[in-house]
Amino acid sequence: MFGVELLFEQFDKLDDFAVLFEFHDDIVLLTGADSPSEIEFFQLKHSTKGNWTLAKLTSNSKKLESGEKTQSILQKLYGNVDEFSGYSQNGQVVSNAYCTEFGQAENTKFNAMLEGDRAKLLEHIQAVYSDATSNCMDVMGFRRTELDKTACHDLVKGRVHSFLKSKIGGDAFQLEACTNAIVTQCRLRNKKLATDVPGVVSEIVKQKGISKADVELWLSDIASNKNAPEWSFIQTYLGVKWSFLEANSVRLAYENYKVEALDNGNDAQNALVSKIRQSLEQISVTEPIGAFVDDLVQSTDLTSSATEYGYVGAQLKAMVIYEIFKSEQTGTVQKTNTQPPEEDQ
């Protein structure tokens, strides 16, 4: 939920960035997706027991099997800030609750606390990191945002709606489908095991993160999806070649695919779409569309490709129709000339 918020928040602020999920910290923001110039760490803490206090944030109550106390929330946060000290610009605890020392402030650094509280915090951090200095107060802080496990999807959907409306305009996009596609991409990055990630930053971003380029691709795909018409419009161009059962199967597949098309993380789907586009580039679309789609499928290897990637005939035809109608190239659709040549008239 917070990763999505951060992606949309930074979209107009940074030319190049990436948000990482569960890598070094809960959420990490890189300024520069390939060669970061700055790194920000966010440690998420959902609270059901009221506001946070400095005492809670510095608590070492739990013990390890060795008998030693675990590091506190702020000691762990400082560990990441210190490890990347040349790049760390921000390290924050993020919660749905406020921090008592900051009142109702939404986004504050620890250097804003009273001098006595700052001294306590620095002493606490130095108990584990003896070389820590007061400069860490300028980097570390607390952020309050709307996080709710029980209403997570609705909150994300609200953020997606606001962002898409500002970037694409109107409300013609399928909000539920867009939200599901975006959330799915974030979850995939979140679940990827960090032990599988290599040391190259670009590969780390690819496996564990979402970049600004990815968000731009989302916007492009969603804008294209808006161009895909309702089935009632398409039906008028199909012709009468298909039986009711076949037309209905393709209709159902088309309705499902309008949602699935937004998931650009589906490698099998992407591979089949690429082959469909390549096939369509080689030929002008003619009416009736039903007959054209049948001819295209029969005259190419699309059927075998669809089978290879796990798609059945109705799904393949639906995907072809989607690509025909949502493309800016639909102006090239040509009606079949049913009139005899002039010399035969």
Topology:
Elements: H1 2-10, E1 17-23, E2 25-31, E3 38-45, H2 54-57, H3 73-83, E4 88-95, E5 107-109, H4 115-126, E6 140-144, H5 152-167, H6 175-191, H7 201-208, E7 209-211, H8 212-227, H9 231-235, H10 244-260, H11 267-281, E8 286-287, H12 289-299, H13 302-308, H14 313-326, E9 334-335
Parallel strand pairs: 3-4, 4-6, 8-9
Antiparallel strand pairs: 1-2, 1-7, 2-3, 5-6
Query: Rounded to an integer, what's the Rg over CA atoms?
Result: 27 Å
**Mean pLDDT across all amino acids:** 87
Q: What does the main sheet amount to?
A: 7 strands, mixed
The number of helices is 14
Number of strands: 9
Helix proportion: 40-55%
Strand order of the largest sheet: 5-6-4-3-2-1-7
How would you name the oligomeric state of the polypeptide chains in this document? single chain
The percentage of residues in β strands lies in: 5-15%
Shape: elongated
* Distance separating the two termini: 67 Å
| Overall SS class | alpha/beta
Q: Would you identify the regions where 5 or more consecutive residues have pLDDT less than 50?
A: 329-345
User: What string gives the helices and strands in order?
Assistant: HEEEHHEEHEHHHEHHHHEHHHE
